[in-house]
Amino acid sequence: MTKIDDDALTFDGAELQTGAQKVLMIACGALAREVLAVIDANGWTQLSVTCLPAILHNSPERIPDAVSQAVDKHRSAFDRIYVLYADCGTGGLLEARCNDLGVEMLRGPHCYSFFEGNEGFAARDEFTAFYLTDFLVRQFDAFVWKPLGLDKHPALRDMYFGNYDKLIYQAQTDDPELTAKAQVCADRLGLPLERRFTGYGDLAVEMQNFVQKS
Predict the structure, then answer these.
(1) CA distance 130 to 189
(2) Nearest CA-CA partner of 207 in 84, 31, 65, 63
(3) Which of the chain's termini has less CB crowding within 10 Å, N or C?
(4) What is the reported pLDDT for 19?
(5) d(CA 31, CA 84)
(6) Phi and psi (nearest 5°) for 56?
(7) Integer Cα distance of 93 and 89 in angstroms
(8) C-alpha span between 202 and 204 (Å, rounded)
(9) Which residues, given as ranges, of the chain have pLDDT below 70?
(10) 146-153 long-range contacts, CB within 8 A, separation 24+
């Protein structure tokens, strides 16, 4: 598998795989490992993958323009383009933009939903849970601790997280080191940890559907 640099994926994005010039998947940088794992497991050699900076999730209003720019940049080189983002806090703006661009995107409100399975996630209706994925466990400081100012003002923790009753770690892989890091994250937030192994959930299903259409 292609070597992954989580810091680069967070702030810069990356060109991760170059296949035949047929199908491009424009992915969130937070999904890079999972996307490549699904590709490797299925032996798809016709796919290329480019990842946008994962940190866009901290400013979701920027995601539609970033996706548009990526589609415009690559459209002439590929037969089909798919967008590996869910709504991700854009309030429907990304779906509208993808419709205008004529490209398909992932279903669901966010990655926590499609990793668990959109139907199952909706049925749980867990409004008082804080979620982390494998990527967010590895990049906890960059996405949670520092953006909220907790590195400088840790006393703000209870103001931010006082209404949560647990941290749910959705594990895409069985990695004891990541589970241990997730426990540290939960402890830092003052929340009990619940680990759920999700694997790749609906991400794998949606990617399979996209490939079958291509």
Answers:
(1) 10
(2) 84
(3) N
(4) 67
(5) 8
(6) -55, -25
(7) 9
(8) 5
(9) 1-2, 19-21
(10) 147/58
